[in-house]
Amino acid sequence: MRTTITFLLLSALFFPLLTHAQWIGGSTTGTTYRTGKVGLGLSSPSELLDINGSTVVRQKLYVTRGNGTDDAVELDFGYPYSGVGWPEQHERALIIKSKGWMDNDGAGGGGFQFITRDWSRSSRVRVERNALTIRRNGRVGIGTTDPKATLAVNGDIRAKEIRVMTNIQLADYVFDEDYSLRPLAEVASYVQEHKHLPGVPSAAEVKENGMDVAEFQNKLLEKVEELTLYIIEQNKELESIKKENSLLKQQFDSMQADKQ
């Protein structure tokens, strides 16, 4: 009996609060309003939870759609702008989308997309650009949503220094005694037929498949070192010719002296 009375008293006390459509405070600062939506620090919330001010999360913040859906979860950063002919939208923003499956390539399909949003002032049309994609398989794409490597960039890269760590053996093997150096006549014949150096990919191959920077640089080093060997060999031949010419000159001078 006592429990029943207690329940009725609590129900009578809290029922008006549970059914009241709006909470009103004396000031918008630090006051919560509720009209189906909750506002902190403002009187007219536009979303289910609208906060006008800084927010601190001490532990974890979960943003989720729920199980069984492929819809993206979005975090939208920007500022609302409205004016004559402009919709009440974010003029500039950064959008972070999280999707379980962006495509059907297995475990690498999900991930995050970082999208920049802007408005074209001339056409008044919203423009969205994919800036960065992080896939579940750890691959990162800049300017592409389908990175085929650990880091894929669809665009220009500017850097003051790039260091490539590779296991490729440098082309110093060219200077080994047992290295087989092509005769220049054979190289000339190959270039005449194929229009590129032996061992170097053609322009068509690079256009279709791209190039491995480290491997290509090493191949260029190989050709430079081969060219050095050709120059050394030609210099030996030149020195030999010079000695022969010097000997012939001495013989000629001796013959001229005998005639006198």
Précis, in short:
By secondary structure, the chain is α+β, with helices and mostly antiparallel strands. 32% of the residues lie in helices and 23% in strands.
How many discrete domains? 3
- Report the major sheet: 6 strands, mixed
Number of helices: 4
> Roughly how many Å is the radius of gyration?
38 Å
Strand arrangement, major sheet? 4-5-6-7-8-9
Beginning-to-end CA distance, first to last residue: 153 Å
How are helices and strands ordered from N to C? HEEEEEEEEEHHH
Q: Which stretches of 5+ consecutive residues score pLDDT under 50?
A: 7-21, 25-29, 86-90, 101-108
Q: Helix proportion of residues, in percent?
A: 25-40%
- What structural class should be given to the helix and strand makeup? alpha+beta
Strand fraction band? 15-25%
- Which descriptor suits the 3D outline? rod-shaped
What is the number of beta strands? 9
Averaged pLDDT, please? 76
Structure, explained:
This protein has 260 residues and is of the alpha+beta class. The protein folds into 3 domains: 1-52, no CATH class; 64-157, no CATH class; 166-260, no CATH class. 32% of the residues lie in helices and 23% in strands. The protein contains 4 helices and 9 strands. It has helices at 2-19, 184-194, 203-209, 213-259, and strands at 32-34, 38-40, 49-51, 73-83, 86-99, 111-119, 126-135, 140-142, 151-153. The protein has a 6-stranded mixed beta sheet, with no helix packed on it. Strand 4 and strand 5 form a beta hairpin. The radius of gyration is 38 Å and the shape is rod-shaped. The termini are far apart. The model is unreliable at 7-21, 25-29, 86-90 and 101-108 (pLDDT under 50).
